[in-house]
Specification:
Elements: H1 2-22, H2 28-55, E1 61-70, E2 75-82, H3 84-107, H4 114-133, H5 137-155, H6 162-193, H7 198-208, H8 214-230, H9 239-242, H10 248-257, H11 262-269, H12 271-275, H13 278-299, H14 305-325, H15 329-356, H16 374-388, H17 394-409, H18 411-436, H19 454-469, H20 484-503, H21 511-538, H22 551-557, H23 562-608, H24 616-635
Length: 639
């Protein structure tokens, strides 16, 4: 099985090289097949490796290819590590990634950069697989930086548009801020534990059992800063909505299967560290809660179909971080998995709408599309019900588990998170009703509107099925059915659970309380749906094209002025400092030195050229004077 693990990321890398080198020569049909086969091969090998893992007693596997870095006290191997968490992520990344590749064949068929696009998709998949399979923090960091690079390449894929380039640069720069924190955290952990390998870190922290060790607190905060950037948490979240500049399949890949899940994966992988620093866990919970609320509120005022989904991702990621903050690591991963299903479906469904409407993205220019896009409508409805938390769709079960753990840990956070779930249901059905119901409000002739072709429809249907039944892997305890995911992850989470028991941060709720939490969440979600129905379907409201007058609506539609605040507090001061240094350093120091040497050379040259008049008598006079000077110096012993 070790060889299979090594080959899994190799296949997308080969696909990237073939399409990347030959994208000008390879036909579109071949490029799509090569890219899709690379991702499909990785998915098949992941299934084979998973079955071998189960048959082999579920023992973690570590493959060391070579020693990468070494010193007297420690070394870092270029290695892969596979356990229960790894296989969960492998199945999601390769499975959902393959469906997005298939969808892209139909969606990008008209694009002149088709082959290049598929090469970037394969590179994205390769980077995420390295991140997931990495056997130590530095290996994870390689994949971490790889997905950051790929996001830059794909967000700015249509690079003739300056706004898209700006969005790509914004994502790249904001992630560098988080990545610096991640890197510092790695150094702190290596310094404290003497190792970067995950198995070694668990062993060291497990032996020490130190709660709120200041050194580990600092390391945990730094790693979380890295997760803030990649997984778009406050205050480093504004890049993610702007990332909608890329092609829609890119949005699906970033939001569902790769980049934004990296931060959650890292914190789950380091669960023994975070369970040993409960003060950091509480900080994570409140950051996640604030992100969930703000993302949901901004989502209520967006009119670009992709922007609505982008802010819903920000909000849902906040839910996952709340789960991490209360120590519910399996619940966080459960929501990662179900979110991958319904968010990929939502973005691909949005892509189908945009494709069918010839690049229209404004929901105010849509309406009545269920008649023209029946496959997209039906599958989008399933995804909508899942993200809204309506039973028995997958999102209901994963969101309910997060709410149950939050209720057990912090009642105020539970109330606010439940309200956020209701807001989610409202703005998602606002989107749904405005796009698919009532009369068509666009300018395009309805005869030219078309539903998804087979290459796009098949992934939509598969993801719809997963969004419907995916919750079966994590049924609640009150159902008296096994929670397959939590049971499967138990060996990975056991060290963290032991730490939580020592720190006395573990919480449990009764069955009656869990029924209550479940009932309240369903009622609140249904209330959000009904409010959207009354406002936008029976009330027939349509968002206005005019700027909002209501101050609250203006605040929300302006995204709480985060970008303006960053520009005032960060960008303008940096620009001012840069201009100041330009004057003080560049003009007064660098230019003065450079131009001074130039002036000195010109003066010396101008002076010396006077000695080269071309007259023999002049040269003889200079020689005579020189001989006299040297003779006098020799006589009087000057030299």
């Amino acid at each position: 099985m070790e060889k299979i693990l090594n080959i899994i990321p190799l296949l997308p890398l080969i696909g990237f090289l073939i399409n990347g080198i030959g994208f000008r020569l390879i036909p579109k049909s071949a490029a799509g097949i090569i890219g899709s086969l690379a991702s499909f091969g990785a998915f098949v090998l992941s299934i084979i490796a998973f079955n071998s893992f189960l048959a082999g007693g579920q023992k973690p596997i570590e493959t060391i290819m070579w020693t990468w870095l070494s010193s007297r006290d420690w070394s870092v191997d270029f290695s892969f590590y596979a356990d229960q968490l790894t296989f969960c992520m492998l199945m999601v990344v390769t499975g959902v990634g393959f469906l997005i590749h298939i969808f892209s064949i139909g969606y990008m068929h008209h694009d002149e950069g088709f082959g290049k696009f598929f090469s970037f998709l394969n590179l994205f998949l390769f980077s995420m697989l390295v991140l997931v399979l990495g056997g130590n923090l530095l290996m994870t960091f390689i994949g971490w930086e790889g997905v950051g690079l790929c996001s830059f390449l794909l967000i700015g894929f249509w690079n003739r548009n300056e706004a898209y380039n700006a969005a790509a640069k914004k994502a790249f720069v904001m992630n560098r801020i988080g990545d610096l924190g991640f890197l510092i955290g790695i150094f702190l952990i290596i310094f404290r534990t003497g190792t970067a390998s995950y198995s070694g870190i668990v062993e060291m922290l497990g032996y020490e059992q130190s709660i709120n060790d200041p050194f580990m607190v600092a390391a945990a905060i730094c790693l979380f800063i890295g997760a803030m950037g990649k997984s778009a948490q406050l205050p480093l979240f504004t890049w993610l909505p702007d990332a909608m500049a890329g092609p829609t399949p890119v949005s699906a890949l970033i939001h569902a299967a790769t980049m934004v899940t990296s931060g959650i994966y890292l914190l789950i992988r380091m669960n023994v560290l975070y369970s040993s620093v409960p003060m950091v866990q509480e900080f994570i919970m409140w950051i996640g809660l604030a992100t969930a609320i703000i993302g949901a509120l901004i989502g209520t005022a967006q009119n670009d179909i992709k922007k609505v989904l982008a802010y819903s991702t920000v909000s849902q990621l906040g839910f996952m971080f709340v789960a991490l903050g209360v120590g519910a690591y399996s619940a966080a991963l459960f929501h990662v998995i179900t979110h991958a299903f319904f968010k990929a479906l939502l973005f691909l469904g949005a892509g189908s709408v945009i494709h069918g409407l010839h690049e229209e993205q404004d929901i105010r220019r849509m309406g009545g599309l269920r008649k023209f896009l029946p496959v997209t409508y039906f599958t989008f409805m399933i995804a909508n019900l899942a993200i809204a938390g309506v039973p028995p769709f997958s999102g209901f079960f994963s969101k309910d588990e997060i709410l149950a753990h939050t209720f057990a840990s912090n009642k105020i956070a539970w109330v606010l998170l439940t309200i956020t779930a209701g807001i989610t249901a409202f703005y998602m059905f606002r989107l749904f009703f405005l796009v698919f119901f009532r009369e068509y409000r666009g300018k395009l002739e309805t005869s030219s509107i078309h539903d998804a072709p087979a290459s796009m429809a098949i992934p939509l249907v598969i993801l719809a099925v997963l969004s419907l039944v995916g919750g079966i892997i994590g049924l609640p305890e009150v159902s008296h059915m096994p929670n397959y995911l939590a049971d499967f992850l138990q060996p990975v989470l056991l060290p963290g659970q032991s730490m939580a028991a020592i720190a006395k941060t573990a919480h449990k709720i009764s069955h009656s309380e869990e029924w209550m939490v479940m009932g309240v969440s369903v009622v609140v979600s249904l209330a959000g749906i009904i409010f959207a129905y009354v406002t936008y379907l029976s009330g027939k409201a349509v968002p206005s094209d005019e700027a909002p007058v209501n101050p609250i609506h203006k605040l929300v539609s302006s995204k709480f002025y985060f970008d303006e605040i960053y520009e005032a507090l960060v960008l303008k001061p940096i620009a001012l400092i840069a201009n100041l240094f330009s004057v003080l350093i560049d003009l007064l120091f660098v230019n003065l030195i450079v131009e001074g040497f130039g002036a000195l050379a010109r003066f010396a040259g101008g002076s010396l050229r006077l000695t080269q008049a071309g007259r023999v008598s002049g040269y003889a006079l200079i020689m005579l004077i020189s001989i006299v000077v040297f003779a006098l110096a020799f006589i009087f012993r000057i030299f």
